[in-house]
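Write out this protein's structure.
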Amino acid sequence: MNNEASISWNCDDSEYQREVLEAHAINQTTLQAAVVSFFYPSIPDQPKFISADDIEKIIGDADCNEDAVLLKGSDNPASGNSDISIELIPIPASPPVLSGYICVLYSIQLFKGIFNIHDADSFAFSKANNSSQPDIMFYAKKTGNIVYVCNVSDVYP
């Protein structure tokens, strides 16, 4: 992740949002395989559902050059997905590392793009393995249909 002062992103630039979405897009099969890899042999029934309204409240008028979305959850598969939390934090120089937790940074631009381009009304987050590393991935839905599936590991924003 690069957080140099010379980099400046326009949070509301729809073309840039589209580029960010394309950089993080995965398919449902990839997501499911990553979830199974993390939880095997006991896959939880449900991801952690968070409404679009709740995410919009979190990102609000956040500055994508200053803030990031942190997703955090226990790295213990037995905990399921219910402990996944989401919060806005200042963009750190490097991703946070907390013993016993999976910590993943998502950009403001990514969520704004999902709202602006896909008009999502809900999100479902799940712990997963990405190249054998614990991760948190998600999909976005609009009126019950999946409109976007995402993995952000190794790419920011």
